């Protein structure tokens, strides 16, 4: 039968062509097998206990150029030195990274890692709280440290996520999470990094939640686009009044929702507005100008049409759709792929995120890589998933680049981490050498063992 | 429309007719007979006797409904009623070849009696025998000039019999000209009749095919029964199948209503398969497939319901307007002219118009866009007459024909031309009756007692008049003016302050062409009589408005008729040589650097270093570039109309190949990402779904051009969550899924036993061909290969073992999120797998996903490829393969999962998948390593034709953007009233 002939042919082809790294991996796995199969998902690493020096690598500092044959030293989780000619402290563990590349850990500016597990299983999802206004919904305390998607994100280089709730008009806060730790507490890098506004859709009435205009029930009873904007404005006005009243002398009972908005009103954290259509983006900009908040646009599918305004007002954009389809038949096949480059050329600051769900946080490097294929300079693509999201989210004092004083959250790779041709060999989070196994590897190890058992029997 | 209401009201003023031909009526006369004169002479008109033939100042003599004479100098017979039609043009009455006359064909409480198991099969219904057409619609159609129409039923797939009727107000029994002329069919089910099978375009075609087979069987089954002397139980009775016998045997025409360009093509395939005698009611997109329509002639009826301009309320609307939609908006009025230009004959129908008042504006728009008036007139008269087989009696103004006439003031095709009367069966129906008296103009009047003189100026429209009066030396506006034109009366009121009386005077006068005689009631209670005469006649009237400026845009005919459509198929050079590239052959030659690829007439000849190319070969320098086989995706859903036929759990008779569409922008985007072949799958709603189809990305071709030739047939199976979640339909569990598949395998075996027995003995009712059972038999013979959707290891293993029990092999698992868990079993059973690179956790059964899936399968020796199940993903499959590198798959093996293995999982690897001598010249030129995220496709070739190049794309993007902008401008101008398309 042809089927069997094909199977045999391919079996022969495949066995003859296992890649070098395939061999290396297989050898390592055989040794580690017994313990690996017992160890479910990765085990959080202990605190850094001695200085570590990674030596001989090409270090991509992001803020201060590329250092060939460089050394990076970190202690107590903090980078202490980076350079070509760096003194290695006594007692340091020296890791030879000759021929390797070192990059800051990648940052996903928009993720649901830890609060979403299985898409179609409702009870496994904690992304969307009831109602239109949930500024106090703070995801870090709901992050499941055992989520399978934590491990699979790390092995592809994503070490920090801005875990973010969704839905309603004010969805909640983004929490910056280090993807290693026994508990959410250990993982939290910044509990409240940004406030998220979910800009309404101009072409459809509101739905879900319980807004000012009671937006459940029949379509015609749901609020219009303009009504929803009015209710966002009204909510911010109330929050501002609350802030004034609390700052004033008299007694004002505490309101958890308004309280959570004060850092955004004070400009201490940005307001991220999810907006894709050109009308949404334009209207969100006007709203943010009126509110005098620190605006970041997330989505930005049509941002190119208002690029000059975004550049002029220095409003950053987190692109979530670099690998999406063109939305209109007449747009080029590369409209989304090239969107980052086009915005960059017009002077818009951009970060890149996938936004495809918790299990797909591991695609982040590719979302940025595609932008490189379509014109974004390589170093800008790296910044779009490291330094820029850190800056937009106010965590660039900790992560986003390799500088003394910042967290030792970094990657050892064989090349540019945005390319499929590169392997991510090791990650460090706050100086901790993290476990590079994940659920994908676990299943690999387990079922390679089955294969060995069964095919031994067969042959 | 307001005018139309008036017209309808006037029509009713004419007396109803009771035909004089007492000898031909069965109904007794009640009361007294009515014997009006049925001899008429229409004189002085220009008579267009047939398209392109006219007689000036002619007389038409009508006697008892029939034209007795036509010509110049014909004199009116004595006793004839004479109609002076100077200044008018008379045409033959129009015939609507597809009229929805409001036929109430919905069954009240479901169909009663032995009709057909499927509620969509209503072939027994007859518009003639059930004629109860809507009087308002009939009258509205008649007022447009129509004297006869094919009345069509509107519900179901097989909708029933359409018949030709006349549009007079005579008794229903006297209006049927040709009953049950054609059977009518549609490509979609009517939801009014239910939501069951079929609920998809491909399911509908399956039902049409099965029903035509059944109609043929039905006759033979009954013949066998009768000729056996009723020796066994009778076959089933179905009025629907009985009614379809003639059509199924190619005698009675089958009129297909098509709603898309592709359905024209689907009709033609049914004609080819069953030899039916088809007619088509088109949808206005015929200009897109003139090449097809001009070759295979099928009687064609086209609508003129041109689309409205897309909404354009802001710049975002302009951005969102699709180029395909804009192009069709602009080109739709050109459809009739382009058809005529291609030599395609057609009838025009009013069907589809949002309002009757659109008919003449749209007809004239078609003429202004190049349709000749003669062809337009023929499309309304002689062509439909011939189609309906009534050309001996209808369609022209000739001696001996039925007196159906249209009387127009001026010329039919002039803007503002007005239909005065429509004659049907020799009886006149007034449409727009001219005002008998027109009071507008200037009147000099004086009081009969003397003393007062006045001048009255009357203007405005007859419905809404205004005016002024000069009296007592002062001119004042009239407070009100009303014309009573039938009575010959005008009523005005005006202030009388100027003559020293405070208040309003009311004046009512009888008028004719020149004289005025009236009386007025003054504020003081006095009355005063007036008389006078007209000093100036009315001016203005119903003249044509200014001719509209029609900007013209030269839109090339492209296919598909949308963004990035092609003007022509890319040429296939005799020889092509790609020089000095890194060539990934994916065959025994492996990866060769600095190599050349030689292609001849669409096939690979050789890959090697420094190849000698034949003289005149097209040379492509690919130094520094990589060349790979065209990418292949074994699982997509773009490119067909519809995905799931979920009306039954088991539907292998349904074929995706029946509903391939070329209007699929994804195809261009997929080419841009290096994809050259895809396998379009039926959806996953059924344990046994429909048959899938292979397409090549021959962008610019018609559906049949896209099909991959000489490939195995395949069918979709689906296991797990999807097929069991349809509420109220078996199965609800994986257990039931297994059982229903097993039962159908057994049923197909039993079916074959019955057939074999009948073929051996010839005894009893001949068995019926059952397309579902035949497909399952083919599956069990591996003539149709199973490609089964599923996630978990248990469900796959169960299906594989079930197939093995029945003696065959499952060809390929698709998705296979847990395929790695049974890799050794798959390898042992020879089952291939097409999996995702990294899809995970979107539902429970996808939770145990691992990116190492393909790696483990490959290690086990399973023929393994990737697939997308996603239109966007399928346009970048090289990157999907790139994801495997991080799991330790070699580069060449990784690329194989989207090339050679993707062909092998469906057994098309003898044709495509690698660059080896004799295989199809489907290849991609990449600007770098094909698995790198930083690489893009520069050229994509299919069959040795370059279907995509990145330079050509840049030019196309600019051209598309410009054309879009121009069309948006036209929409804005048309909306502002400054232009029409």
Give the assembly state of these chains: heterodimer
Shape of chain A: globular
Q: What is the name of the CATH superfamily of one domain in chain B?
A: Metal-dependent hydrolases
Number of strands of chain A: 16
Q: Main beta sheet of chain B, described?
A: 9 strands, antiparallel
Uncertain regions spanning at least 5 consecutive residues of chain B: 1-20, 540-550
The major sheet of chain A is characterized as: 8 strands, mixed
Main-sheet strand order of chain B equals: 20-19-18-17-25-24-23-22-21
Morphology of chain B: elongated
CATH-defined topology of one domain in chain B: TIM Barrel
**SS content category of chain B:** alpha/beta
Straight-line distance between termini of chain B: 22 Å
- Corresponding CATH architecture of one domain in chain B: Alpha-Beta Barrel
Supply database-style keywords.
heterodimer; A: alpha/beta; TIM Barrel; eight-stranded mixed β-sheet; 13 helices; globular; B: alpha/beta; Lipocalin; Urease, subunit C, domain 1; 42 strands
Structure notes:
The complex is a heterodimer of chains A (459) and B (981). Chain A has 459 residues and is of the alpha/beta class. Chain A has a domain at 106-398: Metal-dependent hydrolases (TIM Barrel, Alpha-Beta Barrel). In chain A, 32% of the residues lie in helices and 20% in strands. Chain A has 13 helices and 16 strands. Chain A has helices at residues 2-15, 20-38, 148-154, 184-187, 225-247, 256-265, 278-291, 307-312, 339-345, 364-373, 378-383, 387-392, 439-458; strands at residues 52-60, 66-75, 78-83, 93-96, 101-104, 106-111, 158-163, 170-178, 188-198, 271-275, 295-299, 317-319, 350-352, 410-413, 424-429, 432-433. In chain A, the strands form two sheets. In chain A, strands 1, 2, 3, 4, 5, 14, 15 and 16 form an eight-stranded mixed β-sheet that branches. In chain A, strands 6-7-8-9-10-11-12-13 form an eight-stranded mixed β-sheet. In chain A, strand 6 (106-111), helix 3 (148-154) and strand 7 (158-163) form a beta-alpha-beta unit. Chain A is globular, with a radius of gyration of 24 Å. Residues 1-39 and 208-215 of chain A have low confidence and may be disordered. In chain B, the strands form six sheets. In chain B, strands 20-19-18-17-25-24-23-22-21 form a nine-stranded antiparallel β-sheet, with no helix packed on it. In chain B, strands 1, 2, 3, 4, 5, 14, 15 and 16 form an eight-stranded mixed β-sheet that branches. Among the domains of chain B are: 441-535, Lipocalin; 573-629 and 913-943, Roll (Urease, subunit C, domain 1), CATH 2.30.40; 631-912, Metal-dependent hydrolases (TIM Barrel, Alpha-Beta Barrel). Chain B contains 24 helices and 42 strands. Chain B is of the alpha/beta class and 981 residues long. Residues 1-20 and 540-550 of chain B have low confidence and may be disordered. Chain B is elongated. At the A-B interface, helix 1, helix 2, helix 3, helix 10 and helix 13 of A face helix 7, helix 13, helix 19, helix 20 and helix 22 of B.
């Amino acid at each position: 039968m042809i089927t069997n002939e094909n199977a045999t042919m391919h079996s022969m082809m495949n066995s003859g062509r296992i890649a070098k790294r395939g061999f290396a991996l297989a050898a390592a796995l055989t040794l580690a097998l017994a313990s690996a199969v017992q160890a479910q998902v990765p085990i959080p690493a202990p605190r850094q206990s001695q200085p570590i020096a990674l030596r001989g690598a090409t270090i991509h500092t992001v803020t201060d150029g590329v250092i060939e044959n460089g050394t990076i030293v970190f202690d107590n989780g903090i980078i202490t030195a980076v350079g070509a000619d760096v003194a290695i402290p006594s007692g340091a563990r020296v890791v030879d990274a000759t021929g390797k590349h070192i990059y800051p850990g990648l940052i996903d500016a928009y993720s649901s890692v830890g609060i979403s597990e299985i898409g179609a299983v409702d009870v496994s999802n904690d992304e969307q709280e009831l109602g239109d206004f949930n500024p106090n919904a703070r995801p870090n305390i709901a992050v499941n440290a055992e989520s399978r998607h934590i491990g699979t994100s790390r092995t592809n280089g994503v070490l920090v996520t801005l875990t973010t709730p969704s839905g309603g008009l004010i969805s909640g806060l983004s929490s910056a999470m280090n993807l290693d730790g026994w508990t959410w507490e250990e993982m939290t890098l910044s509990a409240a990094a940004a406030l998220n506004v979910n800009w309404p859709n101009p072409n459809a009435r509101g739905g879900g939640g319980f807004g000012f205009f009671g937006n459940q029930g029949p379509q015609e009873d749901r609020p219009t686009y303009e009504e929803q904007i009015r209710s966002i404005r009204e909510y911010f006005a109330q929050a501002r009044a609350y802030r004034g009243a609390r700052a004033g002398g008299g007694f004002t009972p505490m309101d958890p929702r308004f309280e959570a908005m004060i850092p955004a009103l004070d400009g201490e954290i940005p307001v991220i507005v999810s907006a894709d259509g050109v009308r949404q983006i334009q209207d969100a900009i006007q709203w943010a100008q009126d509110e005098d908040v620190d605006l970041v646009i997330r989505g930005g599918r049509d941002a190119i049409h208002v690029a000059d305004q975004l550049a002029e007002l220095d409003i950053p954009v987190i692109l979530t759709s670099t690998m999406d389809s063109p939305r209109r038949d007449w747009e080029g096949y590369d409209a989304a792929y090239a969107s980052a480059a086009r915005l960059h050329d017009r002077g818009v600051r951009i970060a890149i995120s996938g936004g495809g769900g918790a299990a797909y946080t591991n695609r982040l490097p590719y979302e940025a890589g595609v932008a490189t294929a379509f014109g974004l300079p390589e170093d800008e693509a790296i910044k779009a998933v490291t330094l820029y999201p850190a800056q937009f989210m106010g965590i660039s004092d900790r992560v986003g680049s390799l500088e003394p004083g910042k967290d030792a959250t970094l990657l050892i790779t064989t090349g540019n981490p945005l390319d499929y041709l590169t392997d991510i060999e090791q990650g460090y989070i706050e100086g901790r050498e993290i476990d590079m196994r994940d659920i994908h590897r676990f299943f690999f190890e387990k079922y390679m063992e089955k294969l060995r058992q069964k095919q031994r029997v067969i042959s | 429309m307001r005018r139309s209401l008036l017209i309808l009201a006037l029509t009713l003023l004419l007396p109803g007719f009771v035909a004089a031909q007492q000898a031909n009526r069965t109904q007794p006369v009640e009361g007294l007979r009515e014997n009006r004169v049925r001899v008429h002479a229409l004189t002085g008109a220009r008579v267009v006797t047939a398209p392109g033939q006219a007689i000036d100042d002619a007389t038409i003599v009508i006697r008892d409904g029939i034209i007795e004479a036509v010509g110049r100098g014909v004199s009116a017979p004595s006793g004839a009623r004479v109609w002076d039609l100077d200044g008018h043009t008379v045409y033959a009455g129009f015939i609507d070849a597809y009229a929805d006359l409001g036929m109430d064909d919905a069954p009240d409480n479901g169909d009663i009696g032995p009709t057909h198991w499927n509620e969509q099969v209503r072939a027994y219904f007859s518009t003639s025998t059930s004629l109860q057409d809507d009087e308002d619609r009939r009258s509205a159609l008649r007022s447009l000039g129509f004297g006869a129409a094919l009345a069509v039923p509107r519900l179901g797939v097989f909708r029933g019999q359409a018949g030709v009727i006349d549009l007079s107000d005579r008794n229903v029994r006297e209006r049927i000209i040709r009953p049950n002329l054609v059977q009518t069919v549609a490509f979609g089910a009517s939801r009014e009749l239910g939501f069951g099978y079929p609920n998809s375009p491909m399911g509908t075609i399956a039902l049409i095919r099965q029903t035509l087979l059944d109609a043929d069987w039905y006759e033979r089954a009954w013949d066998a029964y009768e000729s056996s002397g009723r020796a066994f139980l009778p076959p089933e009775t179905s009025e629907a199948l009985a009614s379809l016998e003639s059509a199924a045997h190619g005698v009675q025409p089958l009129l297909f209503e098509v709603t898309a360009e592709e359905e024209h093509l689907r009709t033609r395939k049914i004609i080819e398969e069953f030899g039916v005698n088809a007619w088509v009611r088109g949808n206005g997109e015929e200009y897109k497939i003139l090449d097809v329509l001009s070759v295979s002639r099928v009687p064609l009826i086209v609508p003129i319901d041109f689309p409205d301009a897309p909404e354009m309320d802001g710049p975002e609307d302009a951005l969102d307007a699709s180029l395909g939609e804009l192009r069709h908006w602009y080109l739709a009025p050109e459809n009739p002219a382009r058809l005529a230009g291609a030599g395609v004959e057609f009838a025009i129908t009013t069907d589809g118009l949002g309002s009757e008042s659109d008919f003449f504006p749209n007809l004239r728009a078609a003429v202004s866009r190049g349709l000749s008036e003669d062809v337009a007139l023929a499309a309304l008269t002689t062509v439909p007459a011939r189609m309906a087989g009534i050309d001996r009696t209808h369609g022209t103004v000739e001696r001996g024909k039925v007196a159906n006439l249209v009387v127009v003031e001026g010329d039919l095709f002039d803007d503002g031309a007005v239909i005065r009367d429509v004659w049907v069966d020799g009886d006149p129906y007034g449409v727009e009756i001219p005002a008998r008296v027109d009071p507008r103009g200037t009147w000099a009047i004086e009081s009969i007692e003397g003393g007062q003189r006045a001048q009255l100026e009357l203007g405005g429209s007859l419905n809404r008049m205004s005016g002024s009066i000069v009296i007592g030396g002062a001119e004042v506006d009239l407070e009100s003016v009303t014309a009573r034109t039938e009575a010959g009366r005008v009523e005005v009121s005006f202030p009388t302050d100027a003559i020293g009386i405070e208040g309003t005077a009311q004046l009512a006068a009888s008028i004719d062409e020149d004289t005025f005689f009236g009386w007025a009631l003054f504020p003081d209670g006095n009355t005063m009589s007036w008389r006078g005469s007209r000093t100036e006649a009315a001016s203005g009237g119903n003249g044509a408005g200014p001719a509209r400026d029609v900007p013209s845009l030269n839109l090339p005919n492209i296919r598909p008729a949308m963004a990035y459509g092609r003007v022509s198929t890319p040429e296939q050079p005799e020889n092509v040589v790609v020089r000095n590239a890194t060539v990934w052959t994916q065959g025994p030659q492996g990866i060769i650097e600095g190599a050349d690829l030689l292609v001849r007439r669409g096939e690979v000849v050789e890959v090697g270093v420094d190849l000698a190319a034949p003289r005149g070969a097209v040379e492509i320098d690919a130094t520094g570039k990589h060349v790979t086989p065209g990418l292949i995706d074994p699982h997509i859903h773009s490119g067909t109309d519809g995905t799931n036929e979920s009306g039954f759990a088991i539907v292998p008779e349904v074929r995706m190949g029946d509903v391939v569409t070329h209007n699929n922008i994804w195809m261009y985007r997929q080419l841009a990402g290096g994809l050259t072949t895809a396998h379009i799958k039926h959806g996953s709603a059924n344990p046994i779904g429909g048959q899938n189809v292979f397409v090549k990305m021959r962008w610019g071709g018609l559906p049949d051009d896209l099909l991959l030739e000489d490939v195995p047939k395949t069918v979709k199976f689906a296991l797990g969550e999807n097929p069991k979640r349809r509420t109220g339909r078996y199965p609800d569990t994986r257990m039931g899924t297994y059982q229903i598949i097993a039962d159908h395998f057994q049923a197909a075996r039993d079916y074959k036993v019955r057939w074999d027995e009948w073929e051996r003995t010839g005894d009893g009712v001949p068995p019926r061909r059952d397309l579902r059972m035949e497909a399952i038999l083919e599956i069990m013979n591996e003539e149709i290969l199973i490609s089964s959707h599923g996630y978990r290891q248990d469900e796959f293993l169960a299906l594989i073992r079930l197939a093995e029990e029945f003696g065959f092999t499952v060809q390929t698992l698709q998705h296979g999120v847990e395929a790695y868990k049974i890799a050794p079993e798959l390898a042992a059973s020879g089952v291939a797998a097409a999996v995702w690179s990294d899809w995970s956790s979107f539902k429970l059964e996808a939770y145990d996903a691992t990116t190492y899936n393909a790696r483990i399968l490959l290690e086990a020796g399973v023929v393994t490829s990737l697939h997308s199940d996603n239109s966007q993903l399928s346009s970048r499959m090289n990157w999907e393969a790139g994801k495997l590198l991080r799991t330790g798959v070699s580069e060449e093996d990784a690329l194989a999962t989207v090339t050679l293995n993707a062909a092998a999982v469906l057994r098309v690897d003898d044709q495509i998948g690698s660059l080896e001598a004799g295989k199809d010249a489907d290849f991609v030129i990449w600007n770098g390593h094909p698995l790198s995220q930083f690489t893009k496709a520069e050229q994509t070739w299919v069959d040795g034709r370059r279907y995509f190049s990145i330079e050509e794309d840049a030019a196309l993007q600019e051209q598309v953007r410009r054309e879009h902008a121009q069309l948006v401008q036209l929409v804005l101008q048309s909306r502002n009233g400054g232009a029409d398309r």
